Amino acid sequence: MTETPHALGESRTLWELVQRRADLTPDRPVLLQDDRILTFGALRDRSERVAAGLWELGVRPGSVVAWQLPTRIGTALLSFALARLGAVQSPVIPFYREREVGFALRESKAAFFAVPGTWRGFDHTGMARRLALELPEPPLVFEAYDTLPDADPAVLPPPPASGTDVRWIYWTSGTTSDPKGVLHTDRSLIAGGSCLAHALHLSSDDVGSMAFPFAHIAGPDYTVMLLLYGFPAVMFEHFALPEALEGYRSHGVTVAGGSTAFYSMFLVEQRKQPERKLIPTLRLLAGGGAPKPPEIYHAVVREMGCGLTHGYGMTEVPMITMGAPDDTAHNLATTEGRPPAGMEIRIVDGEVRLRGEAVCRGYLDPVQSAAAFDGEGFFITGDLGHLTESGYLVLTGRLKDVIIRKGENISAKEIEDLLHEHPAIADVAVIGLPDPERGERVCAVVEQRDGAEELSLGAVTAYLRGRGLSVHKLPEQLEITDGLPRNETLRKVLKYKLREQYA
To answer: Which residues does the UniProt record annotate as the domain AMP-dependent synthetase/ligase (predicted)?
Structure first.
């Protein structure tokens, strides 16, 4: 019995994809964590038992179940059990606290809420029960860390047949306002994961890794890839370097990554012993979710001895474009790759718009949904970019990340890319700050490399002049920081915090 990854990608639902992969390779591993191994067959069988346990708790097809759980094998089992039942899942990042969690429970009208108990010193159960008391219809709170609901699958109804019903509510980060509830279907998640899998040219011999929260949209994105190609991934409940390196090495990881911040972290470790390959089996770093300066690409290839492919995605569209290992170095360094078949990209007044199966169905708030799509059904991203003649996407920034100085538009990303090449700079964020004379002034916030002589504004502007940057784009303010503020998912820089700090 053989099926190609492309044929598997035509599965109507995630549960159908699980079943088909389990029939093909039941004894091959899918998830690895410490000394635990879960096979594709066990993923199907144990998820059905968990689904039966959830059924006995009262979960039914269409029930809204929120879960705030770390990246663990048990979390994947719970999620696939809910997919087996046809419940509506609302994953919540484990690092979120009262404001974001309360908002997600209230807006989703969750009837059930799975939590890890006390995790990393924080009492999630206590928080969940406090929040439940504030809701008109409080959810049933239950712990799902060491033990999961379990019962005989004979009680289960048939699995869902449709993959186009909304069964997922993901949450945007909510860094500047309340989060948005993003509506996805099984088919939109399968489409996103298929794009990632096919672009990376992976095989059943690979070993991947999940160093990001499983509750992030990257969770199903990555898991779909495992199901399509039949290879395993190592799960990291808490990712930190150098502690996590033993997991990468002992399991023979061939594909790692996450986002630009992860690449930088691996580079820092590689530079401690440049003569020794950091992860001997590693052949590819891959990720997305944040801009990638060209110098990061070149540094990874040069110093780590592996490839780097980067892509473009967001909670609303988990995978839009992806670089491929056989792309040219120029395209891998300077673009976000190409879209897969079925993803339409349209550039309108410099802004990227999208239409395709991987695009979300909108937001929980119908007003937000109406504003998110244009008259032809294209999703309005708020990102700026253009397509090359050969169809590669180049991102140049975000609409809200354009600095308007004396009426002139300045791309923060253009300045950041140049400063990333400065030998004394480890990381940088360029922001616009209110200015009574200019409207906005350009401010560079810099993390310096260890041991580097402290930079001055004059030195930075001289360097940028030497790189050919126009005078009107030069920073007028320089701030040195020990660490840029980042979120806890893909470690994106939180520019709103920098604007608040330095305005």
So the answer is: 19-364
Looking at the DSSP bridge assignments, the partners of residue 141 are 113
Record the pTM. 0.86
State the CATH architecture for 5-27+38-187. Answer: 3-Layer(aba) Sandwich (3.40)
Asked if 475 and 460 touch (Cβ cutoff 8 Å), the reply is yes
Annotated domain spans of the chain:
5-27+38-187, 406-502
Secondary structure in 3-state letters for 97-158: CHHHHHHHHHHHCCCEEEECCEECCEEHHHHHHHHHHCCCCCCEEEECCCCCCCCCHHHCCC
**Does residue 184 contact residue 211 with C-beta atoms inside 8 Å?**
no
Quick one: which of 436, 435, 442 has its CA closest to 411? Answer: 442
Helix (H) / strand (E) element for 192: namely helix 186-200
Q: Are 310 and 290 in contact (CB under 8 A)?
A: no
Angle at 289 between CA 220 and CA 16, to 5 degrees: 15
Question: Would you tell me the crossing angle of helices 412-419 and 457-466 to the nearest 10 degrees?
Answer: 100
155: exposed, middle or buried (C-beta count within 10 Å: 0-12, 13-18, 19+)?
Answer: exposed
Residue (of 213, 177, 232) closest to 400 by Cα position: 177
Class of domain 406-502: alpha beta
Contact between residue 210 and residue 236 where contact means Cβ atoms under 8 Å apart: yes
Report pLDDT digits (tens) over 397-426: 778 778 888 877 788 888 999 999 999 999
